[in-house]
Amino acid sequence: MTARVLMLSGDRTALVRIVQETFQCQVPDVAGFEEEAITRPALVRRLVRERQADILCFATKRLDLQRFQFVLAFYLLLGRAGRRLILDESGRSIVVTWPGFLLISLPRFLIEVLASTVILVASLIRLAFLAASLRRKGAR
Fold first, then answer.
1. Residue-wise DSSP of 39-95
2. Is the CB of residue 16 less than 8 Å from the CB of residue 23?
3. What are the domain boundaries of the chain?
4. Cα–Cα dist 7/18, whole Å
5. How far apart are CA 60 and CA 95, in angstroms?
6. 102 C-beta neighbours (distance < 10 Å), count
7. Whole-model pTM?
8. pLDDT in tens, the chain (140 residues)
9. What Rg value do the Cα atoms of the chain yield, rounded?
10. Torsion over CA of 80, 81, 87 and 90, rounded to 10 degrees?
11. DSSP bridge partners of 42
């Protein structure tokens, strides 16, 4: 079984050992990956599709602190691998599948976008009222 690990953060040795022990695979192909690179889709697509592997994963120090998990999951789905996951040093992982992405991750992301938009619009309206109130007080 072959594995490709894209390192976001954490102890490289520990993460490689976890992949080897969990999936009983050979020494995985490990590539460094800077979080800022997710803004360059062509680069990330090339990295995840560069080599065929049975397992493709992003490795990080702690899953609960890892930003942009939705985007990382999407990029994993572009890769050519039988199993795709986001893994951390403690052995916790998020398994990424098309059904899970479309039925759980995508709706959750859209709800977060909607909630953020509502908060932003409400804040802008409140700011406009406060600015108008200050102008009225200043005119007195």
1. G-HHHHHHHHHSS-EEEEEEEES-GGG-S-HHHHHHHHHHS-EEEEEEEETTS-EEE
2. no
3. 3-96, 98-140
4. 13
5. 14
6. 11
7. 0.83
8. 889 999 999 999 999 999 998 888 877 889 888 888 888 999 999 989 888 889 999 999 999 999 899 999 999 999 989 999 999 999 999 999 999 999 999 999 999 999 999 999 999 999 999 999 998 887 76
9. 21
10. -160
11. none
**95 vs 100: CA distance, rounded Å:** 9
- Helix 69-78 × helix 41-49 angle, to 10°: 50
Q: Which two tokens stand for residue 12?
A: 């490289």
Instruction: Tell me the C-alpha distance between 88 and 66, whole Å.
Output: 9
Sole residue written with tokens 């994993």: 76
Other Cβ atoms closer than 10 A to 55? 20
Cα separation of 128 and 111, whole Å? Answer: 26
Structure tokens given for 16: 């490689």
